[in-house]
């Protein structure tokens, strides 16, 4: 076996072990405990299970949220770990080191190495789920900085020229008018509710937009906002491709519609990078974390 990855979510923990060809050979799943001691114990149990495939096997963990680069304290909305030195406590309980990666960054790494972004020297992944984040991979390595916040695209400001009749909403990060509030999955519902007073889930809007003008208009507004976000990222990073992941990425026709919207806002004559769908499926987070652990061990 070459490495193991643990995908830690708000409802489940899944550990996966990969062979030398980066194919999953075994997996184990358990519910995510709601209390911090139980969470640490569960993670240590999963690490021990992975170690059973080979002492010293690189083990990576992919989880939502941030780890402060100086204090090691976690900040996360879906785990009972905020304010705690979570990676250090896992390592202590496990009796060994682990590699801890934000789940969207792990996904970006997995797609660059094994998925839709293979062969692109620079690739950007955008996860359109209940939140909004992603990651940037350059020449096979995650682009990282001193604050470890790179990839938190959901906390850019919404574009002023498109916000004339849309609300500036409070974001969970404490700021007002973050892109996450209207571009993440729930944002599509908020756009429709603000425009029409109708309360529908994002998937209902997508399913009905071909026959309902209100839903079609909300979709077009959402496309405009999302295209502007991607345009901003393109101007900063100049990626070879944009990979979409998360629940909203599976909306029928999204790639074509968003590609058209991005072309309309791109600099004239310069084109826009291709928009692709993530290929990793349920192995993405774990495999990205496993690869991060493998690469870290190789670098050391």
TrEMBL record:
Database matches in SUPFAM superfamilies: Actin-like ATPase domain
MF terms in GO: ATP binding; metal ion binding; N-acetylglucosamine kinase activity
Classification via Pfam families: ROK
Keywords: ATP-binding, Carbohydrate metabolism, Kinase, Metal-binding, Nucleotide-binding, Transferase, Zinc
Broadest EC class assigned to this enzyme: transferase
Catalytic reaction(s) noted: N-acetyl-D-glucosamine + ATP = N-acetyl-D-glucosamine 6-phosphate + ADP + H(+)
EC number: 2.7.1.59
Residue stretches spanning the membrane: none
Domain of life per record: Bacteria
UniProt-listed PANTHER family: N-ACETYL-D-GLUCOSAMINE KINASE, ROK (REPRESSOR, ORF, KINASE) FAMILY
Protein name stated in the entry: N-acetylglucosamine kinase
The species this protein was found in: Stagnihabitans tardus
Source taxonomy: Bacteria, Pseudomonadati, Pseudomonadota, Alphaproteobacteria, Rhodobacterales
């Amino acid at each position: 076996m070459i490495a193991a990855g643990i995908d830690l979510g708000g409802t489940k923990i899944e550990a996966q072990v990969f062979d030398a060809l980066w194919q999953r050979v075994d997996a184990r799943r358990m519910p995510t405990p709601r209390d911090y001691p139980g969470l640490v114990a569960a993670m240590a149990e999963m690490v021990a299970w992975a170690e059973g495939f080979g002492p010293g096997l690189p083990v990576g963990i992919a989880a939502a949220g941030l780890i402060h680069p100086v204090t090691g304290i976690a900040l996360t909305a879906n785990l009972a770990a905020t304010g705690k030195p979570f990676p250090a406590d896992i390592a202590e309980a496990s009796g060994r080191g682990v590699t801890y990666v934000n789940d969207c960054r792990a996904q970006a790494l997995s797609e660059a190495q094994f998925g839709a972004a293979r062969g692109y020297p620079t690739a950007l992944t955008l996860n359109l789920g209940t939140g909004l984040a992603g990651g940037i991979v350059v020449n096979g390595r995650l682009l990282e900085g001193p604050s470890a916040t790179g990839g938190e695209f959901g906390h850019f400001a919404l574009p002023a020229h498109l916000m004339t009749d849309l609300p500036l909403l409070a974001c969970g990060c404490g700021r007002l008018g973050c892109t996450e509030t209207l571009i993440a999955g729930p944002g599509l519902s908020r756009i429709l509710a603000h425009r029409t007073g109708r309360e529908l889930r994002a998937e209902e809007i997508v399913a009905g937009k071909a026959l309902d003008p209100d839903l079609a208009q909300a979709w077009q507004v959402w496309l405009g906002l999302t295209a502007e976000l991607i345009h901003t990222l393109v101007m900063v990073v100049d990626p070879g491709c944009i990979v979409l992941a998360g629940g909203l990425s599976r909306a029928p026709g999204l790639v074509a519609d968003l590609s058209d919207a991005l072309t309309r806002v791109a600099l004239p004559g310069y084109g826009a990078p291709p928009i692709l769908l993530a290929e990793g499926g349920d192995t993405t987070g774990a495999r990205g974390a496993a690869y991060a652990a493998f690469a870290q061990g190789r670098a050391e």
